[in-house]
Structures are given as structure tokens and as C-alpha cells.
Amino acid sequence: MRFLIVLLVIALIVWFFFFRKSPIDKKKYPKNSQEETMVECCRCGTYVSSKEAIMVGKKYFCSKKCLD
What we know:
18% strand; rod-shaped; two-stranded antiparallel sheet
């Protein structure tokens, strides 16, 4: 009986340290925070994030300088 209890405690310790998912990782690095779409400026070829790009029609521009 003692052997089974010791074996169960060892199994729980191994599970705790090696197989448990850390809740800190989900809070620290949300799934969508690192994903960002990069688009190419149709004028100079520079890649910028789609959030920072200027879109005119179906074309992306990296700055107002390239837009003019």
C-alpha cells in the first residue's frame, strides 16, 4: 500500500513539472498579439504592417511620400 502512495506522489510531481501548461504563458503572450500581416508598398517595395500602411484602392503604400 505504501508503494502505491509513493508511486502516485512521484507521478503527480512528474506531471506537475513536465506536462502541466503554464497559465502565465497565455497571459504573457496572447495568441493574436504576435501575428501581424506585412504588406509590400507598391511604389518602393518596402514591407510595412497592414496597420501602418496607407491603402488606396487595392494598393498599399508605406508612407505619404510614396503615395504622392
